[in-house]
Design goal:
Layout lengths: L1 H24 L3 H26 L4 H28 L27
Helix pairs in contact: 1-2, 2-3
Length: about 110
């Protein structure tokens, strides 16, 4: 079991490295959010599963941590992306801005100001 745990932990470390490299290489905040969130989420899941194989008595706690991360990471990246867009950060080489009317300065989609 510890060999399988070590393999999962190495795969998790590789995903972390790829996520860091993606954050470094991507051109704008939206692509960096994608690279950072997806790769590090997979890295965290893999790392935690590896720890679970090495310490089976922790597996229930690790499963709860994985569920918490699976719920909070997409919400956090979505909020960061929305905040970046609302504050005026432009996407790299955008052709059509479909959100422009949704987040116009006059109000939001519900007519509130």
């Amino acid at each position: 079991m510890s060999i399988l745990g070590a393999i999962f932990m190495i795969v998790g470390g590789i995903f972390y490295a790829l996520g860091g490299f993606g954050i470094f290489r991507m051109p704008d905040v939206y692509n960096r959010l994608q690279a950072g969130t997806k790769a590090t989420t997979l890295g965290t899941f893999s790392l935690l599963i590896g720890v679970g194989f090495m310490h089976p008595q922790w597996f229930i706690k690790i499963l709860l941590i994985i569920i918490f991360i699976a719920i909070t990471n997409p919400v956090g990246s979505s909020v960061l992306g929305r905040a970046a867009y609302i504050t005026g950060v432009k996407p790299y080489k955008v052709v059509v801005d479909e959100l422009k009317t949704l987040y116009s300065k006059g109000g939001d989609k519900h007519g509130n100001h």
